[in-house]
Structure formats: C-alpha cells, structure tokens
Amino acid sequence: MSHKAWTQFLLLLQKKQPFFATLAMYCEFSLCDDIEFAKTEDKKVTINPMVYQDMTQQQRFVFLLHQVLHLALQHPLRGKDRELEVWNVAADIAVNCIIHDSLKLPAAPFTAWDHRYRDYSAEEIYHDLIKAVDSERYESDCTDENEASEQGEQCDQSQVNQQHANQDQGSSSKTLAQYQARADIGQSGQVPQSCNHTKAYWDKALTSAKLNNELSNQWSHQSTMLLREVDIALSNRVDWKTQLWRYVQLKMSDFSEFDNRFIHRGIYNETIYTLGLDIAVGIDTSGSISNHQLGVFLSELNAIAHAQPHISIALYFADADIDGPYMLTKSNFDIPPIRGGGGTSFVPFFEQIKCDFPTNSLDALIYFTDGDGDYPNDPPDTDTLWLITKPENIAPFGQTLSISI
Questions:
Q1: Cβ partners under 8 Å of residue 293, min gap 6
Q2: Which of 92, 96, 248, 362 is positioned for an S-S bond with 112, CB 3.0–4.6 A?
Q3: CATH topology of domain 240-402
Q4: Closest Cα to residue 379, out of 193, 188, 241?
C-alpha cells in the first residue's frame, strides 16, 4: 500500500509542482503502526496507516507534501537545541504558508497554520512563539508561588524542577494549544557527523531542484517564503549569534545568582550580559588557503567579536606551526600581520591551547580551515566548532559547519 500511495503522490506532484516533486524523490516513505501520528527524520517520512486512511485524497496529498518539505527544508536539523513542541508549530506554519502560496491548498490536517506569519522564516516564527510561551510560563510560576506563599507551603528544589519538567513536556501553553497541531518532526538524536551527512544530502536535493527550476525559468516565480526557506536551509554562512548563545547558555547554567526556576529553560535576566565569554580561534594560514579565503575568515572573526558585548578572543595563526595568542575584544580588534604559508597540521593549535590555558578556562574553540590536514588523536575537553570551506571534509570531533567561499 505504501509504495502505491507514494507513487500516486509523486505523479500528481510532478504535474502540480515539479520543484517539490524533485525534492520528494529524495525521500523514503513508509507506513508504520508504531508511529502514533507522523515522523520526519533524516531521509524518512513515516506515517501511521490509520491516520493516513482516514484522510481524503486532497488531505493525503497535502499531508505528504507537508512532510516532504519538513525534510527538504531541514527542519529536523534546524530545530536542534530548540524546544521541540514550539519548533514543531513554527515549522508547521512555515510549511503550510509555502503550500498555500504555491498551490492555493489548505493546511495539512492536524498541523499548525497561521496566515499572520506569511513571509516569516521558521526561526522568526519560533522566536515569536517562544516569547509568548515563556511569558505564559513566567505568569504561571508567579501565580503558583503566590498561592504557595499564602498557604505557607514549602517544597524542595527537586519538586520544583519536576513541576517545570512536567509543564514543559505537556501542552500547557495556550499559545500552542490554539493550533491543535500534532508532532511530526523527529527529535534529532544524531551525532554531529551524521547531522552533517544529512545536511549534505538535503543540500544536494535542494540545489538540484533549484537548478532544474531555474533552467525552466520558474524559480523567480516561486513564493517569497519558499525562496527564503530554501536560502536559509542552503545557507553556509554561520549564524554566529545563535551558535555562541548556545555556548553562553551552557556556561551560564553554572551560575547560582540566576533565578533557578528559569535556568532549565534558558531564561536569564539582563545581568547575563555583564559576564564574559572566553574563546580561542585558530585560523589556517597554510599554503592551501588563498588570500580571499583569509579575508572571509577575518570577516567572520570580526562578526564573532561583535556577536556579544563581552567576548575575549585568543587568536592564533596556524599552518604546521603556531603563532599567537593575540588577544582581541570588541573594543580592541587590531589584527596583527598574518604569518604562515607552510604545511597544514591542526595539532600545534590544540597543544598550544593546553599550554596557554592549563585550567581549561575557555568556553569554546573555533577553527577556520579547508579541513585538509593532520588532526590530533585526542580531542580537547572544550567544545570545538570547525568552520570548513570544503564540504566533503568533516572533523573527527567537535561540530563541523561548512562555510561558502
């Protein structure tokens, strides 16, 4: 049944929207009783057969297309480190807006739709929703505390944490409940290398579909929201503020001066900005790196320095040898003469870090390179972010992000 249903869907989609049909060809489809509703993960669309059978022909078509776009636009990957229930609603709205604008079809059954977010990216929708959800939670906590205080009740921290955990797992938010959406995005539990392979797979699918559409002079006629979502999914330019904010959150959770009620949600008051973030940045200056590439590396380094108000950067130039550290801040961003031009080894950078920061006081390590070189056998204890210009190269440890040059 699943093969027949998928074939019929592909044939109809090819007639209606060839761009979407190309993306669908990259998906693997199955019906499974073990899935409560639907799940999109990696390359796979999995749907509960009873859910599928109860739909009309048009609903089935829209529902399958909805799942295809979740995968192709990399929503499972883009939702990593976000609250899954909120992200699911945000991504649903983005996909349904695209389907409505492209095919004039209604939203898929049991998925979120909100016309107010037309031309918003999934991330922008998420940002708007999470503010509303956190506001509800804050008001709820204040009400609970006032009631407990009036009754003279006491509870230990473990009970408070459990209450918050239960609250976050349920659909207690009025903001989310209004959409009546069921979860269809899988929680990404992939290791970084697997995530990179999945991204490369869907980057290839999007690029192929986009090229075919451009050759037929159809790309410029696609909906604005689809163009934005594709650009975001394909974008190799790193969102530094998002990445560094993740490191800040990890660091800040160790501070006791924040309100413990909200730390587990990533909610902090304004004093977070008075605390510093210390990182070390390695820039590959070997003979294989062009002047243009070095210029891009330094441009991104400047973006890092200005991503947060209080960042301290220890800069190193590295080929087979190491030169540094040069200490940089937002207010003192003077790049010294670049030295290098030799072979490539990543070992000296990590060895020098051990010597310069023996107490492991750094919050993150960032390395700009083409990825060709000798890697150390033992990964560092500090989180490492690799910015690699060659998409085929993936570092053996840390997180690898591809940058387009």
A1: 370, 389, 405
A2: 92
A3: Rossmann fold (3.40.50)
A4: 193
Joined together, the tokens standing for residue 358 give 């023996």
Please state, in angstroms and rounded to a whole number, the distance separating the CA atoms of residues 364 and 353.
Answer: 11
Nearest CA among 347, 339, 346 for reference residue 370 = 346
Q: Which long-range contacts (CB under 8 A, 24 or more apart) does 353-359 make?
A: 353/280, 353/380, 353/382, 354/380, 356/280, 356/314, 356/325, 357/280, 357/314
C-alpha to C-alpha distance for 18 and 210, rounded to whole angstroms: 10
pLDDT higher than threshold 60 for residue 362: yes
* DSSP string across 220-285: GGS-HHHHHHHHHHH--S--HHHHHHHHHHHHHTT-TTS-HHHHTTT---GGGGGS-EEEEEEEE-
Q: β-pairing, 311-318 with 322-328?
A: antiparallel
Domain ranges of the chain: 2-128+171-224, 240-402
Residue-wise pLDDT tens digits, 176-226: 999 999 988 876 555 455 677 888 899 999 999 988 888 878 777 888 889
Residue 121: per-residue pLDDT: 85
pLDDT in tens, 97-145: 999 999 999 999 999 999 999 888 888 888 889 888 888 877 776 665 5
Look at the block and give the residue holding tokens 């960042």: 311
Q: For the chain, how are helix, strand and coil distributed in percent, rounded to 5?
A: 50, 15, 35
Position 378, amino acid: D
Comparing CA positions, the residue from 126, 16, 114 lying closest to residue 68 is 16
pLDDT computed for residue 146 by the predictor:
57
Residue 102 has a pLDDT of 93
Report the pLDDT value the prediction gives residue 355, as an integer from 0 to 100. Answer: 92
Comparing C-alpha atoms, which of 286, 246, 312 is closest to residue 368?
286
